[in-house]
Amino acid sequence: MSELVSTTRHGDVAVITISNPPVNALGPGVPEGIRSSIAAAAADPGVFAIVVIGGGRTFIAGADIREFGKVVSGEKPRRSLLPLLLEIEDCPKPVVMAIHGTAFGGGLEVAMAGHYRVIAPAAQVGQPEVKLGIIPGAAGTQRLPRLAGVAKAVEMCAFGEPVGAPEAVSLGIADRIVEDDLMAGAIAFAREVAARPAPKTRERGEKLGDADSAVFERARQQAQKVRRGQTAPLAAIEAVEAATRLSFEDGCAREAELFGQCLYSTQSRGLIHAFFAERAVSKIPDVPKDTPVYEIRRAAVIGAGTMGAGITMNYANAGIPVIVKETTREALDRGMATIRKNYASTVKKGKLTQAAMEQRLALITPQMTYDGFEEADIIAEAVFEGMALKKQVFGEIDGIAKPGCILASNTSYLDIDEIASVTRRPELVLGHHYFSPANVMRLLEIVRGRSTAKTVLATSMALAKRMNKIGVLAGNGRGFIGNRMLGPYLREAQFLVEEGASVEQVNGALYDFGMAMGPLAMGDLAGLDVGWRARREFKHLEKPGVRVPLAADRLYEMGRFGQKTGRGWSLYNENREPSHDPETAALIEQLAREAGIERRTVTREEIVDRCIFALVNEGARVLAEGIALRASDIDVVYLNGYAFPSWRGGPMLYADTVGLKTVLARIEEFRAGHGEDLWSPAPLLVELAGNGGTFTGFDKQREVAAGA
Length: 708
Ligand code: T1G
Known about the structure:
Blueprint: E1 5-10, E2 13-18, H1 30-43, E3 49-54, H2 66-72, H3 82-89, E4 95-99, E5 102-104, H4 106-113, E6 116-119, E7 124-126, H5 140-148, H6 150-159, E8 163-164, H7 165-171, E9 176-177, H8 182-193, H9 213-226, H10 232-245, H11 248-263, H12 266-280, E10 299-302, H13 306-317, E11 322-325, H14 329-348, H15 354-362, E12 364-367, E13 378-381, H16 387-400, E14 406-409, H17 416-420, E15 429-434, E16 443-448, H18 454-466, E17 470-475, H19 482-498, H20 503-513, H21 519-526, H22 528-537, H23 551-557, E18 571-572, E19 578-579, H24 582-594, H25 604-624, H26 631-641, H27 651-658, H28 660-674, H29 676-679, H30 683-690, H31 695-705
Parallel strand pairs: 2-3, 3-4, 4-6, 5-7, 6-9, 10-11, 10-13, 11-12, 13-14, 14-15, 16-17
Antiparallel strand pairs: 1-2, 7-8, 15-16, 18-19
Helix pairs in contact: 4-5, 5-6, 5-10, 6-9, 6-10, 9-10, 10-11, 12-26, 13-14, 19-25, 20-25, 21-22, 22-23, 25-28, 28-30
This protein binds (2S,3S)-3-hydroxy-2-methylbutanoyl-COA.
């Protein structure tokens, strides 16, 4: 018996416990331990039934995802769980699976190979493999439809969302909810069923006929809509469909084929990278895990504009009482109306109860004074983007706030140290840069100032988790991580329309690449006035003689701010649907002609490469300067703040996938065509391309160097 899997006897019931912290993944030694434990219990004459349970906080959370890379690289052979699951299912004594925490992926597949499943009230079961770009690989697509029915199995396997205990029982995945002591409840249940013939899931076909082909067609359409560009959801649908047409054995064989295709795909590499990247961001080398954090019991927000309203909701959603201050009644009422509208639409979608909405609104105190700010543990500033105003506000709140109160600015590119310089507590000042809409977007750039204390950073990371946000540490450079890289990306998009591409062509190329929307469409959504203000703030930094985009400023001067004014790069109807704007096209052509820019046919490939490699090139600078701790942090920023396609893993992993040599060669082509000032390759990119390195490899080196 390995220490990963152990057996204890409870009278005539053998309890097999899996202990592989943190989430009992089916890593090396676990399947073997389960196999030998089941065999031993089966052979033990004193044992009449078997219970399998997870040690610690959860049942089995799936296969060990870290092992996949070793299989794909050929370092390790691919091992199938199927034989083990058949052994469990064919065990002559009833096997009861006792589920708490999560039974995900291989964990649910192991559970379904058991004869019965009992579950704790808060537990969840699911097949989230598609979120990793793969599909269930241990008969999950074959056993789940036999238990839960075909339609639900398609939904769970194709979209990866878990179900809770009550639904698991009503679907037939689980047999009983055990309210109190799970192990005791499971043992009692095992004794109840010990004398009955143990039902084998693979032999249960009664639910396989409950769905017609329309179920699969609808799921495919849904997958193509909500998982655009992803292959795994379609593979999962095909595998479940196979269960309705083929024998169990042949269905498993078809599943294994589809699983293999997914596992060796770049999409799976991208999504698995994203999984671990998201879990790495909270690790700051010089801020140890046990760094004390401030308790955030009360908050205050300055500004109830679009961002301020969203930020206020984040605090209320985390259960933190929050004051929101505005300068005028009208602005305050507008802000509160936005908050109520946002909550109401969430209630309408069934994602929040009316009671919860009322509860959260009750945590929000709208006002036009600083009353109560002296009790806040954190004050978030979300006023107009201008250094003078920010400094005025920080001067004011510094005078009011209590000692130890954190002051966080939502600036999206201004100098945090300069803002902190007007306070007597620079160690308590940092950036909390949310992304619009702030109550929806999961990304929070946590911007570290020169004096920001480690406790304040640790508190911010903990607060991000509490708000269900992904906190990414960023250094204090212009535009931090995301917006700094966005500059060259948007620049190239605008240059490409000057050189002959249409607005629709540029948007379309990046949309097909997988972006949620094209760069010019993104500008129209954010507002061309916002872009204009950012450019004006840094006009003094523009290098004389270096080409700058021509049209955006003109569109702004013409009052064309994008969606909010019905026209910008594109025309927008009352449903904000875009269409070609011949006037904008004519303006661009005229400006290009006046600037002597030769207009030509532009290919889709050039559009994608110039925009994405501009992003990557600037990303390499951001990484080398330490503005980002890891290339994977940059990827997390772009996946969660700029809707970069998750199945590409992020811009930096995408560059690794293309090959840094190829990326560099393409950048050098653009340098030759568009000049050193715009396209000088980042030194880190040149170095890595030169020594066959990757950004992923660079992260590992940095991790080792930091002694992590
Ligand atoms: N393998 C390896 N490591 C894992 C892991 C896994 N399956 N799940 C979590 N970890 C690590 C994670 O990286 C982190 O490490 C720590 O555990 C805590 O995780 C055959 C092929 C279970 C809901 O997709 O969804 O089975 O950062 O921070 O918020 O068909 O982890 O501390 O070093 O996320 O409480 C399918 C993935 C696999 C589930 C817990 N299973 N995990 O969330 O903690 S494919 C999944 C999760 C498969 C079969 C197929 C969540 C969680 P570190 P955490 P959490």
